[in-house]
Amino acid sequence: MSLRSIQNNQTVVFKRNLSFLWKFLALDDGKQKMERKLYNWDESPYESIRTRSALIKAKALCPITSKSINYICPYSGIPTHHSKEAWEQDTEYHKLKKYEQLKKVNLYEHDLRSGRKFTEFAFPGKQDKNFTINLGNWDSFFYTRDFPPMNDEFNLAAATKVLTYPLTIASLFYKFSPYEIEPKGPITLEGAKSLAALRYSLYPPYVKSSESSITFKDRPMRIFIIGASIESMIPGYVWKQFGYLFPNTNFEIHFIGPEAYFDKESKTFQSTNTPFGKPLIIRFDEQITLHHHTKFFNEIYDMGDLFPFDPYLDSFFLFHPGFKTADQIHWNKSLKGLLESKCPIYMTGYHEDDINKEIEWLKNHELSNEMDVIMNKTDNLFGCTKLELVDSNPTETYNINNKIFGFRGKRYHAIKT
Q1: Weakest mean pLDDT among 29-43, 58-72, 100-114
Q2: Quick one: fold of 160-206+218-409?
Q3: Which of 27, 28, 330, 363 could in theory staple to 151 by disulfide, Cβ–Cβ 3.0 to 4.6 A?
Q4: Would the pTM count as exceeding 0.90?
Q5: Residues 23-37 pLDDT 10s
Q6: DSSP character at residue 395
C-alpha cells in the first residue's frame, strides 16, 4: 500500500471519528432541553397560526355538537370544540389523550417559525465509498450519511418533512432496501420483478462500480410524481440527497399536475406557460434535473411527449393521490395510461383509513383486472415524523407518507399454442 493511500485512509478514519465525537458531544442529556412555551393559537405571536385558528373556527364543526368551534383546548392550545361543556363530554378525546398529539402539532408549528438555527438542514455531501449507507430507518440513515445529530423530535420533524419524499423513493430502489419479499415483507413476486428491472439499471451487473464507469443507459432514469404539489416545492439540494445514494445514475424528476410548479415571487402555484405544453426544466447539476409539467397526466400522456416508457428506467409515485376528490375525473382518465406503461406505481397514504380508501378505489375501478399488486400495504419506514392537523376536524392528526402501497399494469406472458 502506498504512503498516499495510507494517508488518505487515516484522513477518512479521522474524519469519521471526529464526526462520531461531534455527535456524541452533541447528544442531549435531557437537562439542556429548551422549554418551549405552549401558545393558544388565537394568541400566537405568528399571524399565519392566528389565521389558521380563525379558519378552523369558520369551517370545522365540533365533534360532539356539530356546531361551530369556539373553544380552545387548554391542554393543546388548539381550537377543538364548540364549548367547554362539549370538550368535557368528548370521552373519546380524553380517553385516547388526543390532546397530547395536538400539543405536539402546536409545538411543531411554532418551532418551524421560531427563527432558531436549523442545524438539521446542514445536509452532507458526497458519500465516502468506505462507508455503506443503511436505509433501515431514519436513525440509521442519518447516522450512516453523517447528518448533524438530531437532538430532539423537533429536529427530526423538520428534516423528515422534506426528506420523506426522496427517501421514500430511495428506500425502494436501494440495493439494500429494508423492504423484503413476501412472506417476510410486503414486496410481491411481481413487485420483485419490477424492482429487479430498476436495480439492473442502477447497478449494472457487468460494469464495475466506479466514478468513471459507463453503463448501457442511453438516457436518465425518470421518476414521475403524479398529482405533485408540495413535492414540487422541494429544492434541488434536497433531491440531491437521493442522488448521492445512486452516484452513477442521472435522474429526471418529473412533477406532473396543475400545482406542479410553485412560483417563488408570487408565492403561489402557477402554470409554467411554456410553449407547446413543454415542461419547465430546472437543471440542478449534471446528475439531477427537475421537470415541472402543469397539466394533468392524462393530458400529457395523450400528447405522447413522454413516450416510450421503460420499466427499467421509469417509475411513478402518487403521494396521497386522493382518488375520490374533485380530481377523480382526471384520475379515471390517467389510470389507463399509468397501467399501459407497465412501470411500477407506488402511492402513499396519511394513515390506515386513508390508504385503505385509495386501495378500495383501485379495486372497484373498471380497470382493476388489469392491475398487479407489487407491494402490499405497509408502514412507510421513511414517512414524515411531524404530526399534521386536519383543519376540518381539528381533533385528528396525521403523518405525511405514513403508509405505502404499490401496483402496476398487468403483464401477460406469451403462451405457446
Answers
A1: 29-43
A2: Rossmann fold (3.40.50)
A3: 28
A4: no
A5: 444 444 444 455 788
A6: T
